Each structure stands twice: as structure tokens, then as C-alpha cells.
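Recap from last week: sequence in, structure out.
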Amino acid sequence: MEKRTKNAVITLAVGLALNIMLGVAKLVAGLLSRSTSVTSDALNNISDAAVSLVTVFATALAARRADHDHPFGHGRYEYIATFVVGAGILAVGVEVLSGGIKRIIEPVAVDYGLLVMITLGAAIAVKSFMAVLYFARARGCVAGSDTLKAAAVDSVSDAAVTTVVLCCALAQKYTGANIDGYASVVVAVVILVFAVKILKTTISRLLGERPDPVLYDEVRNIVLSFDKVASAHDLIINDYGAATKIAEVDAEFPSDMTFVEVHAVCDSIERAVYEKTGIRLSVHADPIMDGDERLSELRRRVAEVLDSYGATAHDISINDDSQAVELDIRMPLAHSPEAEITAQVKASIGCVLPYTVNINVDYI
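Predicted C-alpha cells:
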């Protein structure tokens, strides 16, 4: 196991121990005071301990090297673990919400003594420390970074929740207002909001989301930095974990280059991308056909139409046998006016060739 991954596992193990201690302390204080909000906060910490145990093992598994059955490594174990964290937090939030509503309907006298105040104050301090620790360690990790960030966000929410519980306890102790149930509902809402955010992010990654724009531009700029590359398109970056990303791109080369020359440039591009980003890139070479004046005119006209929308076109071809023009258009945004753009492109091409126009729209 690499040092950075080992640090992540150790950090999560420390968090596991602290969550167990906090959960037990709050549970004792909640039962003694008959406070549903304190008991709910204790359940939150105990659930954190359970999911921390899962994430410790998952982070270790994510660091395993690639093997015959998993040639891209095991990095997605981390995303699964983060999903478990979110699901666990969501379940606790629902339970806390249910308990809070019941306490509002059927109020119970609560005795907030010195033990409860000290326990809650100490818990806020410990959770704040854990959040700082998780965030600091996440910056220095590759495998385990996402899990540590999720744990850090959870620690921040826990500290905020416990602060609310402490404020409500002080208010009830010195004013006599029975707000224990309402405090539990506030705790539940905070827990549920953070749980949904974690689950949404993790599910998006598991489904396959658009890559980080900064990383996307970095890879594309490396490809375009080579003199023989005229343009690049269809860059796809597949995420197999924080430490493993596989990518592919189509690069256009002058058609008069030999196969050997193109292959040499493709190899150089792949090495440069791996050395600078750690991404394993595969380059697909497309020839640029410059002999057909009609094709040059089509490229010029299509570019004029698309520039105002921020869109681009590639793989423009003319098939005289079927009397068709084919091209791909990359839309800049999901809400781009697709119908309007394609209609203008077809009209522009029709001014040059009275052919059928087949357009493939993509957002890659």
C-alpha cells in the first residue's frame, strides 16, 4: 500500500475511533437527560462510525493494483464507499426526523445538566478537529481523497448540528421552552441535505460525468501543442478512480503524412499526456483532405455559422455516390438551441451543394 493511501486509511481509522467515543458519550448524556435531540445526535455519530468502518476497508481495496480481471484497477471502490457514507447518513436523517416529529407531538420533560453541556461542547471541538484533519489529509492523497472529503463534509455538518443542539439545550434550560423536538427536526434537515449532496455527487461519478473542465483543457492543449496536429475533437476521459483515468481523442493530421510519421507523433502525444497528467491517452488519427475545394468551402461556411454559438464541427465529408454531406457538431452546452443550429448549418451547406445533410450532434 502506497504511503498516501496508508495515510488515508490511518486518518479514517482515527475518525472511526473518535466517532465511537463521541457516539457513546452523547448516547449516555441523551439517555440520562431524556433528550431526543442529544440522542439523535448520538445516533448520527454511531452511524458515522459504522460507515467509517466500511470506508477504511474500501479505501484500502481502492489502492490495489490492476489485475487480470480488473485491468483498470480498483479505484471505484472509493466511490462505492462514498455512496455507502451518503446512504448511511440519509438513513440516520430519516430516523432523526421521525423521532423529532414524535417528540413535538408528545413533549417530554428534559433535564439538561452540566454533563450534557460539557459533552456537547467537547463534541463540537472534536468534530471541528476531525474536519480540519480530513481536509488536510485529502489534499495529500490520491486514493482515498474523495472518501476523506466526504468524511470532512460530514464532520462539518456534525459540528454544526451539535452546535444547534447545544444552543437549543441552553435555551430550554434557561427559558423553559420545550424545543427539544424542534431541535431534532433541525438536526434531521441538516443531515438529510448533506446526505443528498454526497449521494448526488457519487451517483453522477458512477454513471460517468463530464470531466473536470480544467483537466479537459489541459489534455486538449497538450494534444494541440504538437505542430502536426491541426485540430482535436471527441476527447473522452473515463474515470476509474482518483488515481486512474483512461482517455481517447481524435486528432487531425495532414493527409500527406506517412503512416510512420503519424504513428510517431501519436506516441509522443500519449507519452506527454501521461507524464504531465497521469492519464493514459489513446490517439485516433484522422486525415485532413485538402484537395476538394467544395470541402474547404463547406468548412468555412459551417465555421461561420457555428462560431456565434460557440459550437464546432468536425469529420465533414462529401459522399458523391449517395449525394450526402455528413458532419459532427459539438454543442457547447446542454441547453444549446440544437434545432436552430442544425437548421442554419443545413441551409449554409445547401448553398454550396444540393445534397442531403446528415448531422450527428454530440456534447463530448
